[in-house]
Amino acid sequence: MKKLAIFVEGQTEQIFIERLLKEIAGRNRIAIEIIAVNGNQLKRYTTLIKNAVMTPETKFYVLVYNSFSDNSVPSDIRDRYSSLTASGYERVIGLRDVFPIPIYQKSKLITGLRYSLPQGTIPIDIVLAVMEIEAWFLAEYNHFIKIDASLTPERIKECFGFNPKTDDMEARPKPSDDMKQIYNLVGKGYNKSEKQLNRLASNLDYEFLYIELTNSVPSLKELVEYLDLFLIP
Question: Is domain 2-134+213-230 classified as CATH 3.30.70?
Fold first, then answer.
């Protein structure tokens, strides 16, 4: 059985990654374990959020490790790399936002992250969502209409000055603020509560994300390519 570990910076990424993996790999073929970090810088401890459910059809095993901090993603990878190697994992992915680092320092950020990671037998791939993972959700403009039929790309353009269907959402300086404004327009919230994130995840068009948006959103394409490498039987 192939095993992958994905380290993410927060609950938004955790919920999205779980749903994306199930949509790509098939719910019966993939088992997902979720672990989250709690506490503070002085004392951090892990909590099991979800056990992996194995079936005779299971081909892939994924550990989603929620560091609950962008800065903790590389350190958590370092701390657990040896045990992941010993447990037979064949790939590690780290997913975090570029924000709050300015976009012009992205290359420097990537270099620093790669330098800080261990070198060993299993590859570590770092994916930086530009500027935030919400840029991917903005670009998946179909889901806004599911939230409210009035939230067309044209209305969003009229109200906020950008068109999520035609404009580059990775150029938005604070995509999470854009999400809040769009949702607030129809009396919905986007404060990243678990309930709201699950609502978002259930409304995203994953086929569109996987097939279409990877052609126009480079950071999403990078993540999907790493997942595709792992999901080869």
Answer: no
